[in-house]
Prior knowledge:
Elements: E1 2-6, E2 16-22, E3 28-34, E4 39-47, E5 54-61, E6 69-75, E7 81-87, E8 93-100, E9 106-112, E10 121-127, E11 133-139, E12 146-153, E13 156-164, E14 174-181, E15 187-193, E16 201-207, E17 213-219, E18 224-230, E19 236-242, E20 248-255, E21 261-270, E22 273-281, E23 287-293
Antiparallel strand pairs: 1-2, 2-3, 4-5, 5-6, 6-7, 8-9, 9-10, 10-11, 12-13, 13-14, 14-15, 16-17, 17-18, 18-19, 20-21, 21-22, 22-23
Amino acid sequence: IAACFSQVGGIGNNLDLYIVRIDVDGDKVWEYFYDEGFIEHAYDMIPANDGGGYIVVGDIKTTQTDEFDVFLLKIDEKGNILWKKQYGGTASDQGFAVSATTDGGYIITGRTESFGAGKEDVYLIKTDVNGEEEWFQTFGDVEDDRGRDVIPFAGGYAIAGAYEEPGGFPPLTADIWLILTDADGNKTAEYLHGEDDEGDEALALAETNDSGLIVTGSTGNNSDVFLLKTNPDGSEEWTKTFGGSLIDIGNDVLPLEAGSSVIAGLSELSVFDPDLYLIKVDANGDLIWEEVIGR
């Protein structure tokens, strides 16, 4: 099952949330276009915490003149909407990732222009099992900061994203930002990684079997896949980069047995022509194999 957004088949000249389910042979079982406002995007989807159905997070622009709100949607196994929620303020807010929490609720991260200290800040929202907001937190400075992934971790939460240093040179070059919080979303630690004076961003993270974290994204203005392994306290254990001479990005990471991990992303072998990029590394981040698929 996959969630994204589409204009083809949508109602009107706008983008609608699109979910498709396939069987084990890749044949389509069902598909739905959800036209709940003027524009909707889906960025992440997980199995529902209470058994059966799915939780989808993204954003929604209710009317043409409205700003975006974070959009959380629960659907059943056949794609029917069970409930939907919106979060945010008077400016633009987006949800990029959602995870199930140990108390049966959900934790969302993304970006907010409505709250916080700067142009955009990391947005962290905790909900109950029915999507009712319990609390939110923001993290950031006066420039553009954002959360790209979040998971429960060490009794609190771990957030991966990007931080733009105020007054940095060149301007608007982000660093990979790892934030750890307690159970109420209060920041307990933070770490910055990446190349100096170039754009870096974390896009996904997961807990490893030794209670650390594995984080992937891009470094050097998207020129290489970035891979970070942390200790249980979030401090760096090692970092690695992978890729060729053009754009390479790590979009997701999955820890495997014996400390190995697989990264899924994209790689450009020619300009403006990206392909699926799969990488497997061992427990030390050393390359086992890599494949570029799509040629």
